[in-house]
Amino acid sequence: MSNKISILIVEDEFMIAEDIAMRLEDMGYEVAEKIDNVDEAIAWLDENKVDIMLVDVNLRGTKTGIDLGRIVNERFHIPFVFLTSLANHEVVEMARQVNPAAYLLKPFNDRQVKVSVDMALQNFYGDSGRQSGEPNEVNDEKEEYVLKMPGCLFLRKSTSYHKVNFSDILWLEAESNYTTIHTKTEKYTYSVVLKSFEEKLLPKDFMRVHRSFIVNLSNVTGFEGNTLFIDKTRIPVTRAAQEKVFKHFRVI
Fold first, then answer.
1. How far apart (Å, rounded) are the C-alpha atoms in residues 129 and 79?
2. Cystine design at 156: which of 14, 110, 145, 224 (Cβ 3.0–4.6 Å)?
Protein backbone atom coordinates (compact mmCIF):
# COMPACT_ATOMS: atom_id res chain seq x y z
CA MET A 1 0.00 0.00 0.00
CA SER A 2 1.37 3.41 -0.99
CA ASN A 3 2.26 5.85 1.77
CA LYS A 4 1.54 8.79 -0.52
CA ILE A 5 -1.63 10.81 -0.12
CA SER A 6 -3.87 9.88 -3.05
CA ILE A 7 -5.92 12.49 -4.91
CA LEU A 8 -8.76 12.18 -7.41
CA ILE A 9 -9.08 15.09 -9.87
CA VAL A 10 -12.51 15.80 -11.36
CA GLU A 11 -11.99 18.52 -13.96
CA ASP A 12 -13.45 18.75 -17.49
CA GLU A 13 -10.77 21.03 -18.96
CA PHE A 14 -8.02 18.67 -20.09
CA MET A 15 -5.11 21.11 -19.87
CA ILE A 16 -6.06 22.24 -16.37
CA ALA A 17 -6.41 18.64 -15.18
CA GLU A 18 -2.99 17.76 -16.62
CA ASP A 19 -1.40 20.87 -15.15
CA ILE A 20 -2.69 20.31 -11.63
CA ALA A 21 -1.83 16.59 -11.82
CA MET A 22 1.80 17.37 -12.69
CA ARG A 23 2.02 19.93 -9.89
CA LEU A 24 0.63 17.46 -7.35
CA GLU A 25 2.96 14.66 -8.44
CA ASP A 26 5.95 17.01 -8.23
CA MET A 27 4.90 17.75 -4.63
CA GLY A 28 4.93 14.04 -3.77
CA TYR A 29 1.20 13.29 -3.94
CA GLU A 30 -0.25 10.37 -5.87
CA VAL A 31 -2.80 11.29 -8.54
CA ALA A 32 -5.11 8.30 -8.47
CA GLU A 33 -7.17 9.29 -11.51
CA LYS A 34 -8.33 12.22 -13.65
CA ILE A 35 -12.05 12.21 -14.52
CA ASP A 36 -14.12 14.82 -16.38
CA ASN A 37 -17.72 14.20 -15.26
CA VAL A 38 -19.81 13.39 -12.21
CA ASP A 39 -21.20 9.99 -13.24
CA GLU A 40 -17.77 8.53 -14.01
CA ALA A 41 -16.40 9.97 -10.77
CA ILE A 42 -19.13 8.24 -8.76
CA ALA A 43 -18.55 4.95 -10.59
CA TRP A 44 -14.82 5.22 -9.89
CA LEU A 45 -15.40 5.95 -6.19
CA ASP A 46 -17.65 2.91 -5.93
CA GLU A 47 -14.65 0.74 -6.83
CA ASN A 48 -11.68 2.67 -5.43
CA LYS A 49 -10.50 4.55 -2.36
CA VAL A 50 -8.87 7.95 -2.29
CA ASP A 51 -7.75 10.34 0.46
CA ILE A 52 -8.91 13.64 -1.03
CA MET A 53 -10.56 15.04 -4.18
CA LEU A 54 -10.12 18.18 -6.27
CA VAL A 55 -13.44 18.99 -7.96
CA ASP A 56 -14.26 21.68 -10.52
CA VAL A 57 -17.42 23.49 -9.40
CA ASN A 58 -18.57 24.22 -12.97
CA LEU A 59 -18.39 20.82 -14.65
CA ARG A 60 -20.14 20.74 -18.01
CA GLY A 61 -23.28 18.62 -18.24
CA THR A 62 -26.42 18.19 -16.21
CA LYS A 63 -24.52 17.53 -12.96
CA THR A 64 -22.10 20.04 -11.49
CA GLY A 65 -19.27 19.78 -9.03
CA ILE A 66 -21.69 20.90 -6.34
CA ASP A 67 -23.89 17.89 -7.15
CA LEU A 68 -20.84 15.66 -6.85
CA GLY A 69 -19.91 17.25 -3.53
CA ARG A 70 -23.37 16.48 -2.16
CA ILE A 71 -23.09 12.82 -3.22
CA VAL A 72 -19.58 12.52 -1.78
CA ASN A 73 -20.84 13.80 1.58
CA GLU A 74 -23.74 11.36 1.60
CA ARG A 75 -21.95 8.23 0.39
CA PHE A 76 -18.17 8.46 0.53
CA HIS A 77 -17.19 10.89 3.31
CA ILE A 78 -14.03 12.15 1.61
CA PRO A 79 -12.67 15.71 1.86
CA PHE A 80 -12.85 17.67 -1.38
CA VAL A 81 -11.41 20.96 -2.63
CA PHE A 82 -13.55 23.00 -5.00
CA LEU A 83 -11.77 24.38 -8.08
CA THR A 84 -13.33 27.50 -9.53
CA SER A 85 -12.46 30.52 -11.63
CA LEU A 86 -15.43 32.40 -10.18
CA ALA A 87 -14.91 34.10 -6.85
CA ASN A 88 -18.28 35.86 -6.69
CA HIS A 89 -20.55 35.67 -3.68
CA GLU A 90 -23.26 33.63 -5.40
CA VAL A 91 -20.91 30.78 -6.37
CA VAL A 92 -19.32 30.70 -2.92
CA GLU A 93 -22.73 30.54 -1.24
CA MET A 94 -23.84 27.65 -3.46
CA ALA A 95 -20.59 25.80 -2.79
CA ARG A 96 -20.79 26.33 0.96
CA GLN A 97 -24.04 24.39 1.08
CA VAL A 98 -22.12 21.15 0.47
CA ASN A 99 -19.32 22.03 2.91
CA PRO A 100 -16.09 21.69 0.90
CA ALA A 101 -12.94 21.28 2.94
CA ALA A 102 -11.18 24.08 0.99
CA TYR A 103 -11.22 26.12 -2.23
CA LEU A 104 -8.67 26.63 -5.00
CA LEU A 105 -9.11 29.58 -7.34
CA LYS A 106 -8.03 29.42 -10.98
CA PRO A 107 -5.47 30.39 -12.15
CA PHE A 108 -3.32 28.90 -9.40
CA ASN A 109 0.35 28.47 -8.59
CA ASP A 110 2.21 25.70 -6.76
CA ARG A 111 1.92 27.32 -3.35
CA GLN A 112 -1.84 27.82 -3.71
CA VAL A 113 -2.31 24.17 -4.71
CA LYS A 114 -0.27 22.99 -1.72
CA VAL A 115 -2.05 25.30 0.72
CA SER A 116 -5.49 24.18 -0.47
CA VAL A 117 -4.66 20.47 -0.13
CA ASP A 118 -3.10 20.95 3.32
CA MET A 119 -6.04 23.09 4.43
CA ALA A 120 -8.52 20.45 3.28
CA LEU A 121 -6.70 17.71 5.18
CA GLN A 122 -6.53 19.82 8.33
CA ASN A 123 -10.16 20.94 8.12
CA PHE A 124 -11.49 17.44 7.52
CA TYR A 125 -9.21 15.23 9.63
CA GLY A 126 -7.90 17.70 12.22
CA ASP A 127 -9.15 18.18 15.77
CA SER A 128 -11.06 21.30 14.75
CA GLY A 129 -13.36 19.25 12.51
CA ARG A 130 -14.76 20.21 9.13
CA GLN A 131 -15.01 23.86 8.22
CA SER A 132 -16.23 25.81 5.24
CA GLY A 133 -16.12 29.38 4.07
CA GLU A 134 -14.62 31.66 1.51
CA PRO A 135 -11.15 30.84 0.19
CA ASN A 136 -8.38 31.63 2.66
CA GLU A 137 -4.92 30.46 3.60
CA VAL A 138 -3.71 28.19 6.37
CA ASN A 139 -2.95 30.00 9.60
CA ASP A 140 0.46 28.72 10.72
CA GLU A 141 -0.43 29.22 14.38
CA LYS A 142 -3.27 26.72 14.03
CA GLU A 143 -1.42 24.27 11.81
CA GLU A 144 -1.80 20.65 12.86
CA TYR A 145 1.05 18.23 12.39
CA VAL A 146 -0.73 14.93 13.04
CA LEU A 147 -4.07 14.16 11.40
CA LYS A 148 -6.11 10.99 11.80
CA MET A 149 -8.16 9.11 9.26
CA PRO A 150 -9.43 5.52 9.33
CA GLY A 151 -6.49 3.14 9.36
CA CYS A 152 -3.70 5.70 9.23
CA LEU A 153 -2.22 9.02 10.29
CA PHE A 154 -1.14 11.94 8.15
CA LEU A 155 2.18 13.01 9.68
CA ARG A 156 3.67 16.34 8.70
CA LYS A 157 7.39 16.41 7.92
CA SER A 158 8.98 19.56 6.56
CA THR A 159 6.36 21.03 4.21
CA SER A 160 4.37 17.89 3.38
CA TYR A 161 2.08 15.35 4.98
CA HIS A 162 3.13 11.70 4.84
CA LYS A 163 0.51 8.97 4.98
CA VAL A 164 1.50 6.37 7.60
CA ASN A 165 -0.62 3.27 8.15
CA PHE A 166 -1.17 2.28 11.79
CA SER A 167 0.37 -1.11 11.02
CA ASP A 168 3.64 0.63 10.07
CA ILE A 169 3.97 2.43 13.42
CA LEU A 170 6.29 0.57 15.81
CA TRP A 171 6.26 2.65 18.98
CA LEU A 172 5.95 6.19 20.32
CA GLU A 173 8.52 7.58 22.72
CA ALA A 174 8.24 10.64 24.94
CA GLU A 175 11.02 12.94 26.03
CA SER A 176 9.87 15.92 28.07
CA ASN A 177 7.17 17.67 25.98
CA TYR A 178 8.22 16.00 22.75
CA THR A 179 6.99 12.75 21.22
CA THR A 180 8.80 10.73 18.55
CA ILE A 181 6.80 8.34 16.38
CA HIS A 182 8.98 5.45 15.21
CA THR A 183 7.75 3.78 12.02
CA LYS A 184 9.20 0.99 9.91
CA THR A 185 10.97 3.51 7.68
CA GLU A 186 11.18 6.91 9.42
CA LYS A 187 10.96 8.88 12.66
CA TYR A 188 8.69 11.89 13.25
CA THR A 189 9.20 14.18 16.24
CA TYR A 190 6.63 16.72 17.43
CA SER A 191 6.22 19.16 20.27
CA VAL A 192 3.21 17.22 21.56
CA VAL A 193 2.98 15.30 24.84
CA LEU A 194 2.54 11.54 24.64
CA LYS A 195 -0.82 11.68 26.42
CA SER A 196 -2.33 13.52 23.46
CA PHE A 197 -1.65 10.53 21.22
CA GLU A 198 -2.94 8.10 23.81
CA GLU A 199 -6.22 9.97 24.22
CA LYS A 200 -7.01 11.07 20.68
CA LEU A 201 -5.18 9.26 17.94
CA LEU A 202 -4.43 5.62 18.52
CA PRO A 203 -6.60 2.54 17.94
CA LYS A 204 -7.07 -0.34 20.34
CA ASP A 205 -3.94 -2.30 19.40
CA PHE A 206 -1.68 0.45 20.78
CA MET A 207 -0.94 0.34 24.51
CA ARG A 208 0.77 2.63 27.01
CA VAL A 209 3.35 0.36 28.65
CA HIS A 210 5.46 2.99 30.38
CA ARG A 211 5.20 6.69 31.08
CA SER A 212 7.53 7.25 28.12
CA PHE A 213 6.33 4.56 25.69
CA ILE A 214 3.28 3.52 23.70
CA VAL A 215 3.78 0.39 21.61
CA ASN A 216 2.01 -1.19 18.69
CA LEU A 217 1.49 -4.65 20.14
CA SER A 218 1.15 -6.19 16.69
CA ASN A 219 4.77 -5.24 15.97
CA VAL A 220 6.27 -6.67 19.17
CA THR A 221 8.81 -9.34 18.23
CA GLY A 222 9.47 -10.76 21.70
CA PHE A 223 9.37 -10.20 25.46
CA GLU A 224 11.36 -11.16 28.52
CA GLY A 225 10.65 -10.24 32.12
CA ASN A 226 9.48 -6.64 32.16
CA THR A 227 10.83 -5.85 28.70
CA LEU A 228 9.26 -5.89 25.24
CA PHE A 229 11.33 -6.20 22.09
CA ILE A 230 10.60 -4.61 18.75
CA ASP A 231 13.41 -6.03 16.67
CA LYS A 232 16.54 -4.94 18.60
CA THR A 233 14.87 -2.15 20.58
CA ARG A 234 14.15 -2.87 24.25
CA ILE A 235 11.07 -1.18 25.70
CA PRO A 236 10.46 -1.26 29.47
CA VAL A 237 7.06 -2.20 30.89
CA THR A 238 6.01 -0.76 34.24
CA ARG A 239 4.75 -3.07 36.96
CA ALA A 240 1.31 -1.47 36.78
CA ALA A 241 1.03 -2.25 33.06
CA GLN A 242 2.53 -5.75 33.08
CA GLU A 243 -0.64 -7.77 33.62
CA LYS A 244 -2.55 -5.96 30.89
CA VAL A 245 0.37 -6.08 28.46
CA PHE A 246 1.35 -9.70 28.87
CA LYS A 247 -2.28 -10.85 28.89
CA HIS A 248 -2.24 -9.82 25.24
CA PHE A 249 0.40 -12.48 24.52
CA ARG A 250 -0.99 -15.21 26.76
CA VAL A 251 -1.65 -18.48 24.97
CA ILE A 252 -4.89 -20.18 25.96
1. 11
2. 145
How many Cα neighbours within 13 Å face the side chain of 111?
A: 3
Domain ranges, residue 172: 166-247
Alpha helices for the chain (secondary structure H): 14-26, 38-47, 65-71, 89-96, 110-125, 194-200, 239-247
pLDDT score recorded for residue 87: 61
Confidence of residue 127 (pLDDT cuts 50, 70, 90): low
CA–CA distances in Å: residue 17 to residues 27, 59, 68: 15, 12, 17
Q: Give tens-digit pLDDT for 90-125.
A: 777 788 889 999 999 888 999 999 999 998 998 898
| pLDDT at site 79 | 95
At position 73, the amino acid (one-letter code) is N
Q: What is the CATH number of the domain that holds 231?
A: 2.40.50.1020
Q: Are strands 6-10 and 30-35 parallel, antiparallel or unpaired?
A: parallel
| Domain identity same for 100 and 171 | no
Give the model confidence (pLDDT) of 45-59 as tens digits: 999 999 999 999 988
SS3 62: coil
Tell me: pLDDT of 139 over 80.
Answer: no
CA distance 208 to 123: 28
Contacts (Cβ under 8 Å, ≥6 apart) of 217: 205, 206, 207, 245, 248
Distance CA 235, CA 214 (A): 9
Q: Is the pLDDT of residue 195 over 70?
A: yes
Strand arrangement of the beta sheet that strand 213-216 belongs to: 187-190, 178-183, 169-175, 213-216, 206-210
Residues 127 and 13 in one domain: yes
Which residues sit opposite 222 in a β-bridge? 229
pLDDT of 201 strictly over 80: no
